[in-house]
């Protein structure tokens, strides 16, 4: 498996292909007054910038047609393979505005590498890291005015690729479109940084051994929507999936990884078994916690031990983490058979400490000793 930590340490040496993207400026960018109004009232993923980046892959030609153009609807043949067989993958990462006005991406090379691991699993073509990073740089250059500067805000970037070839046979498509869109965002959970409630999925699993659990493909999220809906019906913001083989071990939430903090300060998170997404936030948090002298154990964790640990106080905190969620405290864990409060339903010290530690680097408040931030504007 690729070591995303090691690759991120080389962030400053990975070249970018940004200059290869032909820029066709939008004829109708949002007037500055409306853009600034949008940037002053941020939600998650509801507003998009003026441009998008794109390129296309053809089996006999490879990647080409790199461009940045006006954001807008796509023209897609009804027989496009993605609409039938879901040959699609995506990524999610953020650009942060620092106090001096400069703009920095967090670990884009790690996302580029995970994109290629997902591409491999979905029989999609590999995308050179320089093209992935180049598309990010080219789009941010065009839409730099859209990077928000208020607290807890960032520009969320969504690269994705899908099978656009029109045919109905089941085989990897010979024409693939890559697109990158951007959305200025505030906190993922509407209440801001407050403890969230989690519902344990009943009778549904996100991924099975040998499936696509460790790929970031749309199909995984489609399968999570019904359990997520059931979580909402029980007053919970996120769903927790258990492993498909034993229905016992914690895997992850619908869109984030999960950690537990023991009373003695030890931190545990489900080990990577091929059915969990290898979160870039997860690996960053593990590294920072270890550098701070904490013991972090990647292991199999049963739901039963978490429930018992929360009840007898051996588990002091639970938190979720991901690009969108950053580090989010979990205040409640519920299922048809139990409903427990964690840390009295309050955000814990370890959770908020690691959130601070991570965001201090992301927002340039602390020195980036890891080489995680890539300046793009
Ligand atoms: N797990 C799932 C299912 C996710 O969708 C995400 C979000 O991308 C994560 C974990 C966390 O990954 P990352 O920290 O790379 O955003
Ligand atoms: C992300 O964190 O980037 C994701 O893709 C997860 C989703 C919940 C928005």
TrEMBL record:
A UniProt-annotated Pfam family: Aminotran_4
EC number(s) per entry: 2.6.1.42
InterPro entries found in the cross-reference section: Aminotrans_IV, Aminotrans_IV_CS, Aminotransferase-like, B_amino_transII, BCAT-like_C, BCAT-like_N, BCAT_family
Catalytic reaction equation(s): L-isoleucine + 2-oxoglutarate = (S)-3-methyl-2-oxopentanoate + L-glutamate; L-leucine + 2-oxoglutarate = 4-methyl-2-oxopentanoate + L-glutamate; L-valine + 2-oxoglutarate = 3-methyl-2-oxobutanoate + L-glutamate
Top-tier EC class: transferase
The keyword Phosphoprotein is assigned to this record: no
Domain of life: Bacteria
One GO molecular-function entry: branched-chain-amino-acid transaminase activity
The entry's keywords: Amino-acid biosynthesis, Aminotransferase, Branched-chain amino acid biosynthesis, Pyridoxal phosphate, Transferase
Cofactor(s) essential for the protein: pyridoxal 5'-phosphate
Similarity comment: Belongs to the class-IV pyridoxal-phosphate-dependent aminotransferase family.
Protein name, entry field: Branched-chain-amino-acid aminotransferase
């Amino acid at each position: 498996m690729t070591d995303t930590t090691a690759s991120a340490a080389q962030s400053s040496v990975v070249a970018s292909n940004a200059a290869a993207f032909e820029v066709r400026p939008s004829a109708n960018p949002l007037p500055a007054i409306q853009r600034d109004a949008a940037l002053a009232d941020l939600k998650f993923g509801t507003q998009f910038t003026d441009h998008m980046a794109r390129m296309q892959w053809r089996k006999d030609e490879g990647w080409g047609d790199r461009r940045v153009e006006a954001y807008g609807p796509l023209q897609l043949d009804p027989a496009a393979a993605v609409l039938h067989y879901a040959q699609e993958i995506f990524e999610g990462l953020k650009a942060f505005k620092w106090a001096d006005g400069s703009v920095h991406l967090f670990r884009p090379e790690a996302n580029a590498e995970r994109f290629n691991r997902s591409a491999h699993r979905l029989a999609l073509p590999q995308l050179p890291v320089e093209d992935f990073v180049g598309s990010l740089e080219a789009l941010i250059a065009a839409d730099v005015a859209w990077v928000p500067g208020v607290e807890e805000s960032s520009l969320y970037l969504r690269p994705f690729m899908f099978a656009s070839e029109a045919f109905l046979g089941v085989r990897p498509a010979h024409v693939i479109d890559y697109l990158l869109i951007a959305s200025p965002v505030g906190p993922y959970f509407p209440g801001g940084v407050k403890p969230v409630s989690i519902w344990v999925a009943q009778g549904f699993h996100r991924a099975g051994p040998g499936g696509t659990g460790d790929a970031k493909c749309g199909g995984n999220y489609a399968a999570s929507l019904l359990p997520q809906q059931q979580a909402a019906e029980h007053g919970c913001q996120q769903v927790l999936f258990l492993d498909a083989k034993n229905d016992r071990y914690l895997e992850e939430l619908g869109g984030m990884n999960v950690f537990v903090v023991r009373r003695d300060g030890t931190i545990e998170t489900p080990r990577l078994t091929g059915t969990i997404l290898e979160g870039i936030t997860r690996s960053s948090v593990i590294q920072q916690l270890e550098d701070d002298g904490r013991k972090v154990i990647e292991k199999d964790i049963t739901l039963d031990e978490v429930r018992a640990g929360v009840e007898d106080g051996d588990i002091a905190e639970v938190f979720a983490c991901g690009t969108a969620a950053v580090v989010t405290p979990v205040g409640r864990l519920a299922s048809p058979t139990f409903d427990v409060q964690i840390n009295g339903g309050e955000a814990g010290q370890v959770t908020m400490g690691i959130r601070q530690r991570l965001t201090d680097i992301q927002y340039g408040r602390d020195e980036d000793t890891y080489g995680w931030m890539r300046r793009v504007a």
